[in-house]
Amino acid sequence: MLKSMTGFIQERYQKDDLTIFITVKSFNNRALDIYLKINLPYVEIEKKTMQIIQEFIKRGRVECFINIFSQRNEQIEIIFNKPVIKRIVEELKDVRMDSGNLVINLTEIPGVITINPSSSFLVKDSINFIEESIRDAIFKLVKEREREGREMEREILKMIEKVENLTNKIEGREDHQIKKIKGKIERNLRLLNNLGSTEEVSKEDLFPILRKIDITEEVIRIKSHIKELKKCIQRSEPVGKKMEFLALEIQREATSILSKSEDSKISSFSLQIKDYIEKIKEQLRNIE
After folding, report:
1. How many CA atoms lie within 13 A of 236 on its CB side?
2. Could you give the CA distance from residue 146 to residue 165 in angstroms, rounded to a whole number?
3. Which stretch of 87-101, 166-180, 237-251, 252-266 has the lowest confidence by average pLDDT?
4. C-alpha pair distances (Å), 17 with each of 13, 14, 71, 77
5. Are 133 and 22 in contact (CB under 8 A)?
6. Cβ neighbours of residue 30 closer than 8 Å, sequence gap 6 or more
7. What is the pTM of this model?
8. Which residue of 5, 10, 83, 189 pairs with 60 in a disulfide if CB–CB is 3.0 to 4.6 A?
9. Rounded to whole angstroms, what are the CA distances from 260 to 169, 174, 177?
């Protein structure tokens, strides 16, 4: 099952006098990158939230915003930046001497006073409820990513099927290409050597040339990569990076076939494969 890396959920949880608002967004990213903001200074909640996110999500940018409120939360924590205040007082001494009494509102000076809501109202039951709420929110985000992933999976499977059909068509044209090249070489040799109409070129003579246009190995490898892509889709673990690698390998094989092609239809099929693979790669950039 494929999972998208993009998702959004916004939930509200209520228990007794405790209210929790959780918003989680996720975006494309090469690795797991977590941004967490909680309105309460509580380290244990931060640690637990990070653990829960890492448990459910393996890849993508995750932004999590948690706001916790309680009717009992009437206390606040006031922090004075004493070194800054002392410096301000020292600097203002001369100004006061020159201009008389001077009134300064310290609350208007950035960095002087910090007012934080207190987390002292949190008890064990409250913390357990907060953790359960966070786990539920992240689980819902994962379900949202799975839902979008299923839609992308259907599109990717359609394009994989197109690539598979085109590969079979290329394989079906391979003998035609060999016969075409063989006939062309025979005609040129008869013309150059003034050979009779019964003269034929042996397989040994053609082998070095035919080997250069042989696309059997490329076709075999593309089919193998297609099988592996289908297997990846059935797995439960993150497979986005592996599928990107397989898609790139198919694209390389199609390029190799195109460079060897002496048949217009094989060339056309190869170009179509490259086009479908490019579309698959675009989808895979959003797969976990």
Report:
1. 1
2. 28
3. 87-101
4. 11, 8, 6, 20
5. yes
6. 59
7. 0.73
8. 5
9. 16, 11, 10
pLDDT category, 97, cuts 50, 70, 90? low
Q: Write out the two tokens for 192.
A: 């150059």
Residue 81: partners with Cβ closer than 8 Å, 6 or more residues away: 111, 112, 113, 114
Mean confidence (pLDDT) of the chain? 85
Q: Which residue has the higher pLDDT, 193 or 141?
A: 141
Q: Which domains does the chain have, with CATH numbers?
A: 7-72+121-146 (3.30.230.10), 76-115 (no CATH), 150-284 (no CATH)
In this predicted structure, the answer to whether residue 100 has a pLDDT above a threshold of 60 is no
Q: Would you state the pLDDT for residue 239?
A: 95
Q: Which residues of 272-287 are buried (b: 16+ CB within 10 A; e: fewer)?
A: bbbbbbeebeebbebb
Residue 91 phi, psi dihedral angles, 5° rounding: -70, -25
Distance, in Å, from the CA atom of 3 to the CA atom of 240, rounded to the nearest integer, reads 9
pLDDT band, residue 65 (cuts 50/70/90): very high
DSSP symbols for the chain = ---BS-EEEEEEEEETTEEEEEEEEEE--SSEEEEEEESS--HHHHHHHHHHHHHH--SEEEEEEEEEEETT---EEEEE-HHHHHHHHHHHHHHHHHHS-----GGGSTTTEEEEE--TT--HHHHHHHHHHHHHHHHHHHHHHHHHHHHHHHHHHHHHHHHHHHHHHHHHHHHHHHHHHHHHHHHHHHHHHT--TT----HHHHHHHHHHH--HHHHHHHHHHHHHHHHHHH-SS--HHHHHHHHHHHHHHHHHHHHH--SHHHHHHHHHHHHHHHHHHHHHTTB-
What are the pLDDT digits (tens) for 163-179?
999 999 999 988 787 77
